[in-house]
Amino acid sequence: MNRMKRQEELYPDYDVLSLQDEWDDHTRSIVTERLGPFRFTLLSEWEQEMIKVIASHLAYDERDEVLTWVAAHVDQELVQPFGESRRKPNTPPRSTLIREGLKALDNWAKSTHYKAFLHIKPDQQLQILRSLELGSLAQENTWDTKLQKELFQKLLGLIISAYYSHPWVWSEIGYGGPAYPRGYVRVELGLTDPWEPKSPAEGKGES
Which of 17, 41, 114, 151 is the most buried (most CB within 10 A)? Predict the structure, then answer.
């Protein structure tokens, strides 16, 4: 499937995947797996769609292929115990926090707009997420200001880290991909290597 171009893309002719022969087999496998197909072990189809819609707002991207990878990454992370020892006091495990939080978002949408979160307008979804970030949604059950903010931060961290690990996004921001085994040679001098994309300013200077 061809990669969709976005108007704000700075490097429209750059494709980091064209360099994958420079990566070792293990690195290549990790990166190309982000293109799918994906297997989900925890999140239900409804939860996957909720994550994708939330990600479309937080990452400002509507491409289903990228959003599906984001949901798959969240699924992978939530089944791992790593980092749970660092969670804040009185905060549930992140799997519980996020899965219960998705239900709470749906309930907030229904109480405010009388429709499920997935069925309200995009600007209404965005307003709910803005309120969640501030912790200003109705404080029902345990969802006080502190827990609302924690939910938003967990979602934001997982979604953005996944989004910027997708090779299509790497190409769009001019990231040359994994440094191993080739490595970056000129970075200490503030220069780009020959195989990296040139910025628009650099390109104009060469013409």
Answer: 151
